[in-house]
């Protein structure tokens, strides 16, 4: 926790404002003098990177909305007009399109970091849950935005995904018709998707505010997973972490700019440059790359309803992760068995993305001789995905013997994460 405020107004105006609306005090205590663990590494810079990505998406999205026409007869042409006739329209649209992919790249790094270092463990359960809510809202905004260009993949992607809701018992048909605004994907659907796509980023911004609030109550986790014990364990956020985060953001933006200026369409699909035609079905209908793992999980089940349930369960299981991990040690830095299983989990997620991008009956390179196609490949990885959360993490807490941990954050910095006493029994320490 940050403790008592250290802000002192220096001028008459700031004293007057502070007594009525202490917004400067809030900023000072939250982003300047906020005590932060002194051992945070560059994996912890993705929170700042994600904030920048959200700002970029909101600003470019507002500009694009000024020129976009949400009508099935004009939507595709309006996107082409933005590229060709609007001043710097090609740049703004490229930034927005690439920004979606970079946003998800950063959020996946952020999630994996949180899982590795145990940032979901008590007392940060609400912080983690709010993060998963942000992730869900991002997925919704991404899907809705993918429909707006009204190309072939936009139209048929909307058709496939909205039809999935029809598999739900009782509520499936009403929900599908509400999404469509009628009895098929059409103009009403596009209008609804445009309205929701414009709204959701502001909802994300609101939940991000709650996320930051929830972060500042217990304070940051850190690579050792050890709670702050003394002032020597911390550093003020500014200038130490503003400089560190700033450097990481600049590096990230250089990579971002590389895609925008040299390969703006490499992460998209060529069929989306063909105007939507309800009479011509693309050879393969796939979502954007960041949704492919869930698409592979959906295809892994032959039953439509079962696939939909499993796909939503793949996200829902993240909400209960804090209670599935039974280990009393937060960081996997001191959990040798957990590190191996987590590594396999990351590989499984990447493999699911690969499986989702390929035709189900295509043989997996290197495994074709064994008769393994991408459908079977995806099913095996799906089993491991759920086993990791529901079986492996709960059991590891009982069978794994953690490595010795340092006594404090300060000691971990000075002694290179070595424990104070050789042979200490960290497993007996309470969860921090």
TrEMBL record:
CDD domains: cytochrome_b_C (cd00290), Cytochrome_b_N (cd00284). SUPFAM superfamilies: a domain/subunit of cytochrome bc1 complex (Ubiquinol-cytochrome c reductase) (SSF81648), Transmembrane di-heme cytochromes (SSF81342). Residues 421-432 have a biased composition (Low complexity). Residues 13-224 form the Cytochrome b/b6 N-terminal region profile domain. Heme b b562 binds at residues 96, 197. It comes from the Bacteria. InterPro entries: Cyt_b/b6_C, Cyt_b/b6_C_sf, Cyt_b/b6_N, Cytb/b6-like_sf, Cytochrome_b, Cytochrome_b_C_euk/bac, Cytochrome_b_N_euk/bac, Di-haem_cyt_TM. A ubiquinone binds at residue 216. One of its GO terms (molecular function) is metal ion binding. Residues 405-432 are annotated as: Disordered. Heme b b566 binds at residues 110, 211. One of its GO terms (cellular component) is respiratory chain complex III. It holds the Pfam family Cytochrome_B. The keyword Heme applies. It is a multi-pass membrane protein. Its cofactor is heme; heme b. Residues 227-407 form the Cytochrome b/b6 C-terminal region profile domain. Its main location: membrane. It is found in: Membrane. Component of the ubiquinol-cytochrome c reductase complex (complex III or cytochrome b-c1 complex), which is a respiratory chain that generates an electrochemical potential coupled to ATP synthesis. The main subunits of complex b-c1 are: cytochrome b, cytochrome c1 and the Rieske protein. This is Cytochrome b. It comes from Alkalicaulis satelles.
């Amino acid at each position: 926790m940050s403790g008592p405020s250290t802000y002192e107004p220096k001028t008459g105006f700031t004293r007057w404002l502070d007594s009525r609306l202490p917004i400067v005090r809030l900023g000072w205590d939250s982003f300047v003098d906020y005590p932060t663990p002194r051992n945070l590494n560059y994996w912890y810079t993705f929170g700042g990177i994600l904030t920048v990505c959200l700002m970029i998406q909101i600003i470019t999205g507002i500009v694009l909305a000024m020129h976009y026409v949400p009508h099935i007869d004009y939507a595709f042409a309006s996107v082409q007009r933005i590229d060709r006739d609007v001043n710097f329209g090609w740049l703004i649209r490229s930034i927005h399109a690439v920004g979606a992919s970079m946003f998800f790249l950063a959020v996946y790094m952020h999630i994996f970091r949180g899982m590795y270092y145990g940032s979901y463990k008590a007392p940060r359960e609400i912080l983690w849950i709010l993060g998963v809510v942000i992730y869900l809202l991002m997925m919704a905004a991404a899907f809705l935005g993918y429909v707006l260009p009204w190309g072939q993949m936009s139209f048929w992607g909307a058709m496939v995904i909205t039809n999935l809701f029809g598999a739900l018992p009782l509520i499936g048909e009403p929900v599908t018709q509400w999404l469509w605004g009628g009895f098929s994907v059409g103009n009403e659907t596009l209008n609804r998707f445009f309205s929701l796509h414009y709204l959701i980023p502001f909802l994300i911004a609101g939940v991000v505010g709650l996320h930051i609030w929830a972060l500042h109550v217990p304070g940051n986790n850190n690579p050792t997973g050890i709670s702050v014990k003394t002032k020597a364990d911390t550093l003020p956020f500014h200038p130490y972490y503003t400089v560190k985060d700033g450097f990481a953001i600049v590096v990230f933006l250089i990579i971002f700019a590389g895609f925008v200026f040299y390969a703006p369409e490499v992460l998209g699909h060529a069929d989306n440059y063909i105007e939507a035609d309800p009479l011509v079905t693309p050879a393969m209908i796939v979502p954007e790359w960041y949704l492919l793992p869930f698409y592979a999980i959906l295809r892994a089940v032959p039953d439509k309803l079962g696939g939909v349930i499993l796909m939503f369960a793949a996200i829902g299981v993240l909400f209960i992760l804090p209670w599935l991990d039974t280990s009393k040690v937060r960081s996997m830095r001191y959990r040798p068995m957990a590190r191996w299983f987590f590594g396999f989990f990351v590989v499984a997620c990447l493999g699911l993305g690969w499986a989702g991008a390929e035709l189900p009956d295509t043989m997996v390179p290197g495994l074709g001789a064994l008769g393994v196609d991408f459908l079977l490949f995806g099913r095996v990885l799906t089993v491991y995905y759920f086993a990791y959360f529901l079986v492996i993490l709960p059991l590891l807490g009982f069978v794994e013997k953690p490595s010795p941990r340092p006594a404090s954050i300060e000691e971990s910095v000075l002694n290179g994460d070595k424990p104070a006493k050789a042979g200490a029994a960290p497993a007996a320490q309470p969860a921090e």
